[in-house]
Design goal:
The protein is 78% helix and 0% strand. It is mainly alpha-helical and 280 residues long. It has one domain. The relative contact order is 0.11. The model is unreliable at 1-5 and 7-11 (pLDDT under 50).
Length: 280
Amino acid sequence: MSDNQSPLHQLILKPAKQLLDLKKYMRTRKAVRQGEELADFDDKELALKGLLSPWPFNIQETVYATLPTFIIIGFMNFLFGKPEITTQLTEETTQRDKIFNGIYESTLNFLDTFTIPIITTVAVLLIAWGSLKKKDTSPQKKKHAMHSYLYYDGAHGLVPQALIVLCIALLEWFQLRPSMGRAFPEEITIALAVLFYASSIYLVWLIGRKIPKRLFQKLGYSGRVKHFWNKSQPDDPPWSKYTLAVFLGGWPLVAVWVGIIFTISYCFAYVATELKILLV
């Protein structure tokens, strides 16, 4: 039996390696929040310091932001079973609908696994474009801006993103179980809604003010917020361009991607269902 297949590896070494990744993430997060500019280091220097490079760091932040929700919702589903609405729909659907729904959901779930990587990649590329004036743009500066943003977002966005995901999941969970929702105090729903809006406002402030100020200063701009009544200065950052990039990388990008995966899933499920019925 190889080391990779041994009980020792499965029970001790593998979880220890995952814990090491978490330690690296927390160490990297602490360094960024304390003001270190890790985008200035190459991969070898980061490895020597026991720190993560920008993409793995940001990806791990996304995982840690969503992991508590998966655990909590999974545990609640285990305790209380399937949603009432889903159960009712299953009883009332025809055999053809069941085939279509099965293929559609499996295709959608498969494509949905690419949502976070694709949305993150495109959004970061847009941010890198929006954080530099046209005269200052170069491939090297775009790369530097992209890596800096990945560090800033991964260091500051963990808590609000985790709370937003958790609130949405819990509110949806109660919505799919009307009788269960009535069994819980109404204050729980109100508290979740308040926490969702508070976390969203804080996240908007992070993305709209705190992170870009530091990013602009890192790229050689002043970081000041210029209003229309202020006189322009040579070192003014491109706030308008950055705001446009954030807007395009938000709901419009999500809406386009959701439309794409829903359309592909529906078309594939329709064709596959028809073929399966013809062949049976």
